[in-house]
Amino acid sequence: MTQVEPAIIITFVVYLAVVLLIGIAAWRRTRNLKDYLLGGRSLGPWVTALSAQASDMSGWLLLGLPGYAYLAGMESAWLLGGLLVGTWANWRLTAAPLRRATEYYGDSLTLPDYLERRFEDRSGVLRLLSALFILVFFTVYTSSGLVAGGRLFEEVFGLSYVWAVSAGAFAIVAYTFVGGFLAVSWTDLLQGMLMFVALILVAVLGVGAVGGLSSLAEGLREVDPALLDPFTDVAGEPLTVIAIVSLLGWGLGYFGQPHVLARFMAARSAEHIPASRRIAMSWVTVALVTGTLVGLSGSLLVEPRLEGADAEKVFMAMTTLMLHPVVAGICLSGILAAVMSTADSQLLVASSALAEDFYRGMLRKQAGAAEVLWAGRLGVVAIAVIAFGLAMDPDSRVLD
After folding, report:
1. H-helix or E-strand containing 249?
2. How far is CA 86 from the centre of its chain?
3. Are the C-beta atoms of 195 and 337 separated by less than 8 Å?
4. Measuring CA to CA, which of 346, 373, 386, 389 is 20 to 30 A from 149?
């Protein structure tokens, strides 16, 4: 556990206060259900791009990815390649057509609503199944975000795991409940920039501390030559074709990630998508490379060596090892930003499915917009409670 520095605590408190203020500002702009679920389709290129990527990458970008690189070395290059190709293809092939189509087919506010209208499914089965998938899997995915938040609060504040997860969950639920999609998107813009700066700073300092990229490679070779070979695992065994394809296949998930697709649906217009794509690809390329470098350099700098689930704390360890407490607090807030930017999006998408697709779509077709709006807000709380229960295992790993 890192030493609890007052400067780090103050930085965290200020960051959380800013996020909650953004939630309140978004609440003042949220007048109807369309505002709560899609921000009134008002997102500009920068907010669309960074909110999509920040919500996509989640806590695993600063915890799971560096931890994976720390343990597995260049085996992680396959994962990076798949994510980059998948991200680009999703922006290039899906974003603009989905933005146009969801507005054309009855101004659909959720993906299940759009699918039902697009394929004229009067049985309701398509809407039911797609909404069910979102609810089940996003509740589990949200729990991974709570695990990441718990690891952070546990490390920084010295809290027990249960109280650490509780603190992170409360912070996320508070502004998502109040501000809806606009709060989530605006905070994601802030969080995306914070994650970006934190990763670059820690990666540059880490590589510099070991003497540069050539010294990093030489140091890894001395620790274990397998760390530099992308075709072998950490045990030195050759990677199977199935293992490589599985790592590359991570990028295929983007085409069906509702919290990412919701950003495409909420863009101000399809004409803004190319600009958003360029911003998003620049951000994600730098973020993935620097996240990997943090893990690789950390394997030479962090003592004693981190094992098992603790490997996911390498970014925290590097931050507190090399930075002044104030700067460390800002960088550690980047982890909180990564956690919150995904968990809030998943909570909102799952609650949207619960309110719009289950509650109004199947149970109370006559429900008014205000009633569905409050059903969505209460859905945020209900889903968060279930995700909280799933996150209670102290041995949970974010990437798992």
Report:
1. none
2. 16
3. yes
4. 373
